[in-house]
Amino acid sequence: MKERSGNCLCGAVKVTATLGDEVHACHCRMCQRWTGSALLSIEAPADAVSFDGAENISCHASSPWAERGFCKICGSGLFYRVTAPGPHEGKHYLAVAIFDDTDGMKLVGEIFHDRRLGVFEYAGNTHKKTEAQVLAELGG
Fold it and tell me: What is the CATH number of domain 2-138?
């Protein structure tokens, strides 16, 4: 675990988080529309993340189980946060690109892999889950 810091495009929101080094990609249609591609994120429990400028964060409930946080000034995507009760409630999946230092981070998994945009495929061997597999795990 390593403490990392970063910010949104305009600097109105700063984040500090204690993180591992495992990055995951989500290829679901919502993430595609939100990011223009896939969301590359790194997981952090709620108590491992702090925001300076939190008053500049706006959230959108993008599904019955989660919300997406973004800077309401510049629009930078900051996180996907689980809101549904259960073992993942409160977890943040922070956008990797907001961090100043990404050294040592590695892509290890992809979800909704069968829904990825056809224009690319990540190199390397990652653990891949289909839409059906992810929804089955979520109970949907």
Answer: 2.170.150.70
Query: Each residue of 69-105: pLDDT tens digit?
Result: 999 999 999 999 999 888 888 999 999 999 999 999 9
The tokens for 70 are 């973004």
Domain spans, the chain: 2-138
Taking the C-alpha atoms of residue 63 and residue 87, their distance in angstroms, rounded to an integer, is 17
This prediction's pTM: 0.90
User: What are the residues whose beta carbons fall under 8 Å from the beta carbon of 86, sequence distance 6 or more?
Assistant: none
Of 96, 120, 91, 118, nearest in space to 108 by CA = 96
Q: What is the dihedral of CA 19, 131, 134, 45, to 10 degrees?
A: 20
